[in-house]
């Protein structure tokens, strides 16, 4: 009995310590963003949105556009690809899947210059669409892995019974299978949003026009104050502003997110 209590206390203490460890940087950013020279207030946020190098509405619109394109494209490609890998047999299936997963082993920063040149050939250089395509490519290995396992977790009899009732492959996918893999879709979409919303290095390399900058680039530009010093307070305010949408989305979708990992990522 005592051993069980000690184990419970040990697990609780470990979980609490890890929670504090992960939450501390965010709490520190929130505290630093409210700290002013005379106390606490919203002066740093006011400076973030009103200064010449601060966040402007078009920065937010650009980030929302890139995130929406990345999430939509990732869900479309990973759903169709995961369904193909999970349900069909074709020559080179396993080899193609392993090659796709191998993209995870390549540091994406090493190929950004090559992708920049490739986008120039396609006429998509310095564009939000080109940036979104690159972010979709980086999300593809994880997303395909998640969706393939999510489809494989569904009993094959469910799909066969739908086809016996006269459903086509497309109808079976859209009306039967997609609702069943909803947790996996939410997990993939959430990861795609978090990556695209917080991505800094890819927009830095692939975007040249200031009117196409995302909020991450705007926040970094905001860090320089007068006389070349770094405005840490405004920078922390930008970090908090960038984190708020991520926290809200995760708070609303955490159950489906955890369920997607259990049913998809841990299978096979």
Describe the structure.
This protein is mainly α and 268 residues long. The chain has a single domain, classed as MetI-like fold (Orthogonal Bundle), CATH 1.10.3720. It is built from twelve helices and no strands. The protein has helices spanning 2-34, 43-50, 57-87, 93-101, 112-122, 128-152, 156-164, 169-180, 182-198, 201-206, 215-222, 232-265. The two termini are 36 Å apart. Mean pLDDT is 82; it is low at 264-268.
List the defining traits of the structure above:
mainly alpha; globular; disordered C terminus; 268 residues; 0% strand; MetI-like fold
Task: Provide a concise account of the structure shown.
The chain has 268 residues and is mainly α. Helix content is 76%, strand content 0%.
The total of helices stands at 12
Overall geometric form? globular
| Regions with little confidence, pLDDT below 50 for 5+ residues | 264-268
The CATH class assignment is Mainly Alpha
Radius of gyration: 22 Å
- Tell me the domain tally: 1
User: In the CATH scheme, what's the topology name?
Assistant: MetI-like fold
Q: Quick check: average pLDDT?
A: 82
Helical fraction: over 70%
Count the beta strands.
Answer: 0
Q: What secondary-structure arrangement, pairings included, does this model have?
A:
Blueprint: H1 2-34, H2 43-50, H3 57-87, H4 93-101, H5 112-122, H6 128-152, H7 156-164, H8 169-180, H9 182-198, H10 201-206, H11 215-222, H12 232-265
Helix pairs in contact: 1-12, 2-12, 3-6, 3-9, 6-9, 6-12, 7-8, 9-12, 11-12
